[in-house]
Design brief:
There is one protein chain. By secondary structure, the chain is of the alpha/beta class. It has a domain of 203 residues: Metal-dependent hydrolases (TIM Barrel). The chain is built from eleven helices and eight strands. Strands 7-6-5-4-3-2-1-8 form an eight-stranded mixed beta sheet. Helix 1 crosses helix 2 and helix 6 crosses helix 7. The longest helix is centred in the middle third of the chain and has 27 residues.
Length: 305
Amino acid sequence: MRFIDMHLHTTASDGSCTPSEVCQLAIDRNLAAIAITDHDTVDGVADAITYADNWNSTLPPIQNSDSTNCSGFSDSSDHHIEVVPGIEMSAIYNGVEIHILGFYMDYKNPELISRLAAIKQARYDRNEQMCERFRADGIDMTMEKLQHGNPDTVVTRAHFARILIAEGVCRDMNQAFKKYLGKKCKYYIPTPDTPAADAIRLIRTYGKAAFIAHPLIYGFGYKQIEDMLEELKPYGLSGLEVYHSSNNAYESGRLREIARKHGLLISGGSDFHGAAKPDISVGTGRGGLRITEAVFQDIKKAVTV
């Protein structure tokens, strides 16, 4: 049996590892499939796919009788990896910021790239305004520092936190978010609103599946989650991220029941960011996360029908 991780971040957004490094970490753990899901961008996808293709080309061809056990699933002796082109879009639902994962994105599509560029520019303008608030209070925050030599990086609050820590303003990420970057803090400016329905439409226009990410971190109860799913299904919602580093076994079980009740697919991933979340590892989250390849095969089957 092999495992997967459908929620990974790279230096294309707020991860600290390059797409190639993330892919290698997944290979080291013999994962069957991963999804690169950077915030509001597909910029890291191509490098990860190229890296995986180069790795796969060094391996013996897959033999159906052995590697898939005649069941469609690879066994532990197979070391091929599949990279799913993905995205994690920020959106607003009932006044709350939520995240929506997109899988099998047409990452080379010029229209998609243009639309994401507009979102990125709006985020850039917001980040500039946050920098101005910091500088007004004597904290030298600049876009150059936040981008760290990569002008294509999608800057998030995690980037602000890293600068605050690096310059001794804060001791850790928790303090940075609690004192400076939380939604009630004076330096915080919300990202420009994209309604959840619009984010799902965009994902389904240029991709094949849209999933609500980590539904329990938004402060919703299970009934509210069910209401959200029913409201967003008509816009093309495909599924729910059931398995996540922040969930315990009970929570994942409840979410799995809810997804099945509403006829939705299930997914799962670590939400790996590298140094920004050092306690979360590719494929295993905080140690207890193991998502079987069957979850990936169900998604793959649904999008290829």
